[in-house]
Amino acid sequence: MGETIGLTRGGAVWIPRFLESIDAAKCLGCGRCYKVCGRDVLQLIDKPFEGDDEFGDDLGNKVMSLSNPDNCIGCEACSRACTRKCHSHIAL
């Protein structure tokens, strides 16, 4: 199977890049990526590790996780909304 290729409404070629992973060590659990994803790809979970965040006060105890990767359409809206650059994407 070759690379997935789509077209924009205007006919331009578009190559979707699907969400592959989220770096839990960088994620603040702010929910920005969750709010922009309309495909039920993400879920807020308890941190999978112990310890303080970079600010030394353990502000959050939640992080975002990739719960339904098959729902991803490769739009990368989650990555654009993330100020921490936590998301990794791949072309299929």
Question: Could you explain how this protein is built, in words?
Answer:
It is built from 2 helices and 6 strands, in the order βββαββαβ. It has helices at residues 32-36, 77-81, and strands at residues 6-7, 13-14, 18-22, 42-46, 62-66, 87-90. Strands 1-2 form a two-stranded antiparallel sheet. A two-stranded antiparallel ribbon has the order 3-6. A hairpin with a 5-residue loop joins strand 1 and strand 2. It has 92 residues and is an alpha+beta fold. 11% of the residues lie in helices and 25% in strands. It has one domain (6-90): Alpha-Beta Plaits, CATH 3.30.70.20.
Describe the structure in brief:
Helix content is 11%, strand content 25%.
Chain-wise SSE layout:
Blueprint: E1 6-7, E2 13-14, E3 18-22, H1 32-36, E4 42-46, E5 62-66, H2 77-81, E6 87-90
Antiparallel strand pairs: 1-2, 3-6, 4-5
* Low-pLDDT residue spans: none
The CATH top-level class label: Alpha Beta
This entry's quaternary arrangement is: single chain
What do we call the CATH topology?
Alpha-Beta Plaits
Question: Nearest-angstrom radius of gyration?
Answer: 15 Å
N-to-C CA distance: 9 Å
Order of helical and strand elements = EEEHEEHE
CATH architectural group: 2-Layer Sandwich
> Residue-averaged pLDDT, rounded?
90
- Biggest sheet, in brief? 2 strands, antiparallel
Strand content: 25-35%
Strand runs, count = 6
Molecular shape = elongated
For the biggest β-sheet, the strand order reads 1-2
Structural class: alpha+beta
Percent range of helical residues: 10-25%
